[in-house]
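Researcher: Going back to the complex we discussed earlier. I've cleaned up the inputs and rechecked each line, so this should be the final set. Can you rerun the prediction on the complete assembly and write out the structure?
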Amino acid sequence: MKIKFAEFVMSNSNVEKCPKSMLPEYAFIGRSNVGKSSLINMLTNRKSLAKTSGRPGKTQLINHFLINKNWHLVDLPGYGYARVSKTAKKTFQKFITQYFNHREQLVTAFVLVDIRHTPQPVDLDFMRWLGENGIPFSIIFTKADKLKPNAIERHINDYKEVLLETWEEMPNYFITSSSKSIGKENLLEYIDTLNTSMNLSSK
Ligand code: GDP
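Model: Rerun complete. Updated structure for the full complex:
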């Protein structure tokens, strides 16, 4: 799939105010600084469609983008900010929970994790929560340019080991780098396949 059209639609903190359209949507979420904005910009061939984070904690909203006029890419707030207050965290949790539990249009979530780090409890807890709530997800490993191939393999194996304690099989995953444009085609093809399986042509 080539992305020929990418447009910001709206930001809000209330799932009921999200676009009413039934276009399939794909949500991107991960810890602050994981490289989510860079990944969205890489996927959409834009320098600043998603704002890269200057000040973590500022982008606490559900952001909808219309892609190729037939699907929505959703940029969700990053979790795990050290500098955000407890009250802000609770409010955040509430609307994210509501988003995942009520957004019928959601096809799958993409949970972003920095490939350089060992499996982090906050990411594993979030994946477990998605699983318990029946929300399909894939993992996107980011910043692969920072590691050599054998280290990438080692880090993914560490993830597999931890995840297989909870899951019957390793969730679907992608290895990406926004700075080296790695993984873009695979990810877009995957979304395209899901869109096509829902009788949508997005070519
Ligand atoms: P966000 O907070 O998750 O939206 O993360 P950003 O996209 O703003 O990126 C956070 C930091 O990681 C920035 O300094 C980016 O330049 C850097 N970064 C993002 N993606 C990559 C990548 O693929 N490779 C490398 N080396 N750095 C990246």
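Model: Worth noting: Strands lie at 6-12, 25-30, 62-67, 71-75, 106-114, 137-142, 173-175.
Researcher: Good, that matches what I expected from the previous run.
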